[in-house]
Design goal:
Radius of gyration: 22 Å
CATH architecture of the largest domain: 3-Layer(aba) Sandwich
Number of domains: 2
Order of helices and strands: HEHEHEHEHEHEHEHEHEEHH
Structural class: alpha/beta
CATH topology of the largest domain: Rossmann fold
């Protein structure tokens, strides 16, 4: 997110546009926690995780009074357009704000990669690389002790982190919310197969949305007699210095948003489609449904043996 903030700020100022930073999202917009940014405000932030503007949920913004207050603050300060970085909730808030008369631009920033309108969201690559590094460390212990490690990664409704990380670490099984699984068929039988060809340690990747990592681990140990341990990676996946891919795509998206505004184009979502940065209408974006990459999932099963 910091790379987006940096790109928006610098490209705007170089085009004669004043930039105001809103702390803690729509909460800050309602309370007026806003300050003017300059070129130096965003120095040395591209390598930092999180966001220098902070973030917060805003129940008040979900009410008509909250939206009216946000519009009032925008008008008082002279804010012509709000650029929102976030997920589905942030986009819905932006649409409500645009319907109330404040132009908006949206940039997808969520580690889950769960925004339906975009093939890629800022933060995803950093998250899966962090997960991969952590699981590689877990693998050392699993291999030394001939264990099965069942690792939970983030992703309540979207299995992209589990799928990509599972492929990267050579997991024996990958369990995601989009595909109904059977413990015997999708885990036990795969372990048995790899045992027959000489494997003695196993990595099972599970999306947090399945909410049963302990039960899966217990089932493996009970049926197979293999010592099984659980690891929940948790919020470590949400932090850390962003990868090159995240820094570059975030920078592109931030600049692209400003370029659209200079052309008088508003209320769009900046997305990645077929490896290109493009924009779509905010209403169209919110009507889309996320499609799971079943083809990649099937390929993962073929090589995880």
């Amino acid at each position: 997110m910091n790379a987006v903030i940096r790109a928006v700020t610098r490209s705007s100022i170089l085009n004669g546009i004043r930039v105001m930073g809103v702390r803690r999202g729509y909460n800050g917009l309602i309370s007026g926690d806003i300050f003017e940014m300059n070129l130096r405000t965003v120095s040395d932030i591209i390598h930092r995780g999180g966001t220098i503007l902070y973030t917060a949920r805003s129940p008040e913004f979900k009410t008509s009074d909250g939206i009216s207050r946000a519009v009032e603050v925008c008008n008082d300060i002279g804010i012509d357009c709000v650029i929102a970085i976030g997920g589905d909730g942030s986009f819905r808030g932006a649409r409500a704000l645009s319907e109330a008369g404040i132009a908006c631009m949206c940039i997808p920033g969520t580690i889950d990669n769960d925004i339906a309108c975009s093939d890629y969201t800022v933060g995803f690559d950093t998250a899966i690389n962090t997960a991969m590094e952590m699981i590689d460390k877990v693998r050392d212990t699993a291999q030394s002790h001939d264990r099965c490690s069942v690792v939970e990664v983030m992703g309540r409704r979207c299995g992209d982190i589990a799928l990509h990380t599972g492929i990267a670490v050579g997991a024996t099984a990958i369990l995601v919310p989009e595909v109904k699984y059977d413990l015997e068929r999708d885990v036990i039988e795969r372990i048995k197969f790899t045992q027959r060809i000489g494997k003695k340690h196993f990595i099972i990747i599970v999306s947090e949305g399945l909410k049963n990592i302990a039960k899966i681990s217990e089932g493996i140990q009970k049926i197979m007699g293999i010592e099984s341990r659980t690891t929940i990676l948790g919020h470590v996946q949400r932090g850390g210095s962003p990868t090159v891919r995240d820094r570059v795509i975030a920078s592109e998206m931030g600049c692209y948003a400003v370029e659209l505004l200079l052309k008088g184009i508003e209320n769009r979502v900046i997305v990645v489609k077929k490896s290109e940065i493009v924009d779509i209408d905010i209403n169209e974006a919110l009507d889309m449904k996320k499609k799971f990459n079943r083809e990649l999932y099937e390929r993962a099963l073929k090589i995880s043996i």
